[in-house]
């Protein structure tokens, strides 16, 4: 036939590797090659034709023994075999090149020094603006799925005060002095306290960590907590009862002639950057921030700082970490005057734990069962309505000092007059 007398008909093997032979009018032929093959007869395999490195790099091929592999030289900070990993570029865009290189170093060392990596996280997060930090943190409807006080259901958004803390993220305070709601103690016991159901963070919790992602603090309503404050972690699937006993302390004021000085308010000390009432811990952290500003040119993002103050980036992380080893604890610094608070309350806690009934047999869809197994219930109650008070008083009151001075002064003056009269009499007799 005519087709058998054409170039392609006579040489069907001309195009290699599955290429399709196409006759030309001049008696020659061309090959339509399959993907990854090129050149005149499709004899060359080019792995780079199947990828463009996602438009983020330049493709080249390398032959290893009998296998041809693709290599992408990624531009900017893209990574991966085909430059599909954009996470390094996102970190560079968010934090800058120097901070990204520091992140690489910390991540590379996290297997040998995991604590150092965790300590550095606030240095990364604080480079984001406040709105972004609040957005990526847990929202109140994720953290608190139900709240009751004295058995009465409440709206969590109304009764919880929100703030964003540098090291802890989004925090929610019940009974804060910053809200329009106050909750007075009318009775004690489990029926009169606060009960909160904390949501399950199942997709963001390590399988071997039995603690909840939430942290509970018990503190005075006008005082601010930090990541270093005493805290408690509820257990998913359990009811955690926190039974609180309180003690109050009243010390002699600043400027007193008796005992050790104390601070009545933040204005009594040189530096205090935490909102709320005075605490000795916040005072020392503020003093540390002043030292960080002097030594590193910025303040440590793990703690509160004045509005508008430059916060240290990851490039200053090593500088901040060197302050305590170099200078010692702030409580030993001469420039830190941080007395005890004049009036404060301390809370002692007894914590118990019991399993929540899963109700798996009562619900066909198992949603309630799953929630009960993964969510946490927390009850916080006062053990009783009384508490111990420690009141510091001067061993020698000022009034008693004045009275004693008058008595001793009168005695001394009287003694001197009698002696003077006797001396005059003796001199009169002798002379």
Could you give a quick summary of the protein structure above?
The protein has 431 residues and is of the alpha+beta class. 28% of the residues lie in helices and 22% in strands.
Architecture overview:
- The protein is an alpha+beta fold.
- It folds into two domains: 3-45, Laminin; 120-390, Acid-sensing ion channels like fold (Sandwich).
- The chain contains eleven helices and 17 strands.
- The chain has helices at 7-10, 87-95, 97-109, 114-125, 130-136, 140-143, 156-159, 280-296, 317-327, 367-374, 398-430; strands at 20-23, 29-32, 37-38, 44-45, 57-64, 67-74, 144-149, 152-153, 160-165, 169-174, 194-198, 238-250, 262-263, 340-341, 343-355, 376-382, 388-391.
- Strands 7, 8, 11, 12, 15, 16 and 17 form a seven-stranded mixed sheet that branches. Strands 1-2 form a two-stranded antiparallel ribbon.
- A hairpin with a 2-residue loop joins strand 5 (57-64) and strand 6 (67-74).
- The longest helix has 33 residues, at 398-430.
- The protein is elongated and about 170 Å long.
